[in-house]
Amino acid sequence: MRRGTVTSGLLLCLVLPAHADWSYIGPTAGGEVFVDLASRALQGNLGRVRVMANFDQPRAEQGGSKYRSSSSVQEFDCAGRRLHLLSRQTHDATFAQGASRATPMSAPDPWKTVPAGMRAEGMLALACADQPLLDAPTRDWPRQHLVTGSQTLRHDPSHTRRDGDLLSLRWLMQAPPADAQPPARAASQEVV
Fold first, then answer.
1. Is residue 164 part of a domain?
2. Interatomic CA distance for residues 107 and 6, integer angstroms
3. Is 162 part of a structural domain of the chain?
4. How far is the C-alpha of 46 from the C-alpha of 31, rounded, in Å?
């Protein structure tokens, strides 16, 4: 398993999981984006998830330090379809490994609208899902679709990669069939 880090910010102190199981979300112009599904938390109308980006080439911070990956905690306003960063770190190595530095945030990050059809919309669906992502036994879950209101997240088995303990997956968003209903939630399930 990949090890995460502990972050503390000036205005906000977040304890991140000791282990992160990064799931592949998709490519970017200069790298790839992953999400830690275990970090997902939904409280009321706000969903949070930890996101990590690997970069093909080292990037430079304002002070000149180079980094190969960054990790952040993103918060989503589920009803308002907005997002903002709660914290961000840069890391010397890929997959949030190596020495890390907290990115100073002088003020709370402003809310930004989540545009339709973009990767952030998939992140919104993941963070705001009103059900556990792994309802089915592990051997069956890639075939299960996650219905989240107006979107269905579906695992794309053609893009599953394994690198040691890291399993990378791609999720596709699509409009669900008109008769699709979200699975009934068991009364005993708790939202974290």
1. yes
2. 20
3. yes
4. 28
* Statement: the pTM of the whole predicted model exceeds 0.70: no
How many C-beta atoms lie closer than 10 Å to residue 133's C-beta?
A: 16
The answer on pLDDT for 82 being more than 90 is: yes
Q: How many domains does the chain have?
A: 1
Domain that holds residue 47: 2-174
Q: In degrees to the nearest 10, what's the CA dihedral of 48, 82, 33, 174?
A: 100
Q: Distance between CA atoms of 133 and 145, rounded to whole angstroms?
A: 9
Q: What is the pLDDT of residue 22?
A: 81
In the chain, % of residues over pLDDT 70:
57
Return the sign of the alpha-carbon dihedral for residues 180, 186, 191, 192.
negative
pLDDT tens string 117-143: 787 888 888 888 876 554 333 333 344
On whether residue 89 sits in a domain, the answer given is yes
In a domain, 86, yes or no: yes
> Where residue 111 sits, what CATH number does that domain have?
2.40.128.710
